[in-house]
Design goal:
D-tyrosyl-trna(Tyr) Deacylase, Chain: A; six-stranded mixed β-sheet; 148 residues; two-stranded antiparallel ribbon; alpha/beta; 2 helices
């Protein structure tokens, strides 16, 4: 499982010209799921995500987590995080989770985050989405379950 985490001043996701998710201060998380991922892996990734101290305190140091700053989450599925670019110029996506399994895992992540964070917005699995954000920092982190 891979999360690309961006600290944002605001972010939104649009499908068919309609905004379906929008947050102010918080984290935009692009989520890639592999076939080998499990709920246990998702739980570990969520715990790490929500515990990251990447918001600034009064002294300007990145010392606060999303709970402390009452931040919001915008969760967006993105199978392209498992692109294989080793051969040729057209990426392969065979390492990405099969749609049914990946969608179930994505929904699990959304529901698990809603249990801990007041504002959790999300995209639409498998849709052509337009994601807009104002990256705060910029601050972007890649979490890979293979490295946790």
């Amino acid at each position: 499982m891979r999360f690309v985490i961006q600290r944002v001043a605001h972010a939104s996701v649009t499908v068919d010209k309609q905004c379906i998710g929008k947050i102010e201060k918080g984290l935009l998380v692009l989520i890639g799921v592999a076939d080998t991922d499990t709920k246990e892996i998702a739980d570990k990734m969520i715990k790490k995500l929500l515990g990251l101290r990447i918001f600034e305190d009064e002294q300007g140091k990145t010392n606060l987590d999303i709970h402390t700053v009452d931040g919001a989450l915008l969760l967006v599925s993105q199978f392209t995080l498992y692109a294989d670019c080793k051969r040729g110029n057209r990426p392969g996506f065979t390492r990405a989770g099969k749609p049914d399994m990946a969608e179930a895992m994505y929904q699990y992540i959304i529901e698990a985050c809603k249990e801990q964070i007041e504002v959790v917005e999300h995209g639409k699995f498998g849709a052509d989405m337009k994601v807009e954000l104002l990256n705060d920092g910029p601050f972007t982190i890649l979490l890979d379950s293979a490295e946790l």
